Amino acid sequence: MRILGILWIVLSFYLTACGTATKAKPYVTLTSDEKARQALDEQDFQKAIELYKELVEGDPENYERYRFLAAAYAAAAGFDIIEAAKSNVSGGESGSLINSLGQFLPADPSADQMEWMRLSKDTLLSMPAEFRSKDNAEIDYAAGAATQLEFYQSSYAIMYINQFAKVSESGSLDPSRLESMTDQDVENILSNFSQVASTGGEGVPAAAQAILASIEAKEGSTQREKLINYLNATKKTS
Amino acid sequence: MFLKLSARKVKIASLGLLVWSGIAFGKNSNELLYTEPFDLAAGGTSLTRASQEGIVFANPALLPLGGAWLRWVGFQAGFILDRDLVQSAQSGSIGDAAGAGDSNFVDELFSRSLHFGQTATLSFLNKNFAISAFERLELDVEGQRFGDGGLPSVNFGVEAYGGILTSYALRPARWISLGVTAKRLYASEPEIQVPITDQSKIRELTENTSKLRDEISPNQGTGSDLGALFLLQGFNVDLSLGLKVEDVGGTKFTGAQPDFPQTYNAGLGLALHGTKEVLHLSLDYRDIGNAYDEKTFKKVYIGARLMLRNMLGVACGLYQGIPTAGIRVDLLLFKLGVTAYGRELGSFPGDKQRNMLMIYTSLGF
Questions:
Q1: Structurally, how many domains does chain A consist of?
Q2: Residue A90 pLDDT more than 60?
Q3: Helices and strands per DSSP (H, E), number in chain A
C-alpha cells in the first residue's frame, strides 16, 4: 500500500505539472475544411458561416458542405439540434410540432435570426433534390440532408409565426401583432409546412400535416382567418 | 462502475434517438499496434529504447542490447481509463446526470467522449530471439453535435488487435544491431456513426444484427518489420539512431480490413548513465514517407526516461504533442505502473483528443 501511495503522489505531481492540453497547436496549419469544422464545433457560428460560404462558393458541387453551412445558419438563428432531437415530435396532435420546437426557438425572433433561418433552409433547397432525399440510398448523406430540411423548414415557419403570435404574460395573443400578418405572410407559413408535409413519413412531416389539417378545420373565409383562429386556439393553451 | 455507466448511456442514446448510418474501417494512424505502457509515458518513443515486450513491437534491433541473455519472460496486463471521465466522476457531474433522466444523459453524451480499453501480452525475449502474443482493445464513444453533416451523431470507434510476433536480431558489430519481426495479426477497426436520420436504417440494424457482428469480426493478416540500431557508446554517454521499416511491402488482411501500408521510421536517442542510473532522451519521427497522410505533429514523439537503481522508473514526454507522464516500480517478479497519456484521434490538434490513464502490472523477470 505504501508503494501505491508513493506512486499516486508522484503521478499526481506529474499530472498537475504536465496538464493535458496539446502543445502542437502553434505548429499546425489547418485546412479550410478543418477551420470551418472547428468553428462549428466551438459554436462560433458567424465564423463557421463565413468559412463554409467560401468553401461552397469555391466548390459548388461538393454538396456535403451545404449541410454544414445550413447547420451553421440554423444554429445562429437559435435552432438547437440537440433540443430538437430530445423533443417528442409526433404526428398525432397538431400542436406537438409547434410546442416541441417552440420550446427552444426564439419566441420573438429578430430580423437577423429570421434571415439566418431562411438561409438555412434555402441552402439545403439549393442542393439538387436527389442529394436531399430519403429515398436515395446511393448518397450517404441524402437522408440526413432531408431530415435537416424538415427541421429547418418547420422551424422557419414556427419562427415566422412567432413574429406575430407573441403570447403575453396574461396568456393571450397581442391582437395588433396578429392583425399585421399579411396574406403573403400566411402563404409563406403554410407553404413551408406544406413542403415539409409533402415529404411524407412519420415524425416532423406527419406533425406538419396535422398542423395544416387543424388550420383547415378552423372557421374562417380565408386562410389568414383560419390561421389566426388556429393560433388563438393553440398558442393560448400552449 | 465507469464501464457500466458508459454502457447505460450508450443504450439510452441508441434507443431514444439514434439510428445506424455506416461503418468505416481503417487504421488511420502511424501509431504502433501496441506500445509498452512505460514507453507510452515517455511520449511513445520506442525506436532507440523500449521496455520489456515493447521491443518486439517497437524495433527488433533493440533485442541484443543490454547485459543479460534473458531480456524478459512474463505477462503484462493494462487497463485504460478515460482520464476526463474519472475526473468528472470524482466531481459528481456524471452521478448527477445519472439520476436526472434521459435528457441529461443526452446532454452529457454530446458534451464529452468516453474512451476505455485493455491490453495484455505474454512474452519471451532473449538477446537474439523473442516471441510475444498480445491483444489490445480500445473503445471510443463520442457524441458530436454536428457530426453527421450538421446533425448530431454518436460515433463508436473500436480498435481491436491481437496476434503473435516473433523477432530475431543479431549484433554483427559493437556499433550496429539488426533485427527482423514476423507477425501474424488480427485486426478490427470499425468506426460506426449513428446519426439522427431515417427510420429505414434503424430497421436495417435491428432486423439484421448479424451485419454488425460481421463487420467487427477480426480480420487476419501477415506481415514483417525490419529494424536497425546504430550505437555510439561512451563511458557515460550513448548516442543511438534507430531505423525501422514497418509492415514491409504492406500488411494485407482478410475481410474488409484495409492493408497497413509500409512506413519508414527513424529515432534518435541520447543516454546519460552512471552505475545504476540512466537518463534516456529520445525523439522518434514515424511514417517519414507519409503513407498515412497525416500532419507532421502526429508523427513526432518526444520522451525522457529516468531509471533509478533498476527499480524505479519515471518518464514524461509528448505523444503527438500531448503531454505524457508515468511511473513504474520494479519489484523482482512483480512490476506496477501508472501512465497518463493522450492520443489525438482526429486530424488536427484538439480535434478528437482523448486523455487516458493506464494502470498496468506485469509478472515476470
A1: 1
A2: no
A3: 12, 0
Cα nearest neighbour of B319 on chain A: A22
Kindly state the average pLDDT of the residues B68-94: 75
Give the CATH number for residue B172: 2.40.160
**Residue located via cell numbers 437559435:** A78
Residues 107 through 126 of chain B touching chain A, CB cutoff 8 Å: 107, 110
Q: Give B-chain residues touching A63 at CB under 8 angstroms.
A: none
- pLDDT tens digits along B42-80: 999 999 999 889 999 999 999 998 777 788 888 999 999
* Chain B touched by A86 (CB under 8 Å): yes
Distance CA(A8)–CA(B337), nearest Å, equals: 10
pTM of the model: 0.80
Distances in whole angstroms, Cα of residue B169 to Cα of each of B36, B64, B165, B176: 19, 7, 13, 11
Domain of residue A186, residue span: 83-237
**Cell 429578430 -> residue:** A110
CB atoms A144 and B337 under 8 Å: no
Beta-carbon separation of B340 and A3 below 8 A:
no
Burial class (CB in 10 A: 0-12, 13-18, 19+), B1: exposed
Q: Which three cell numbers stand for residue A132?
A: 436531399
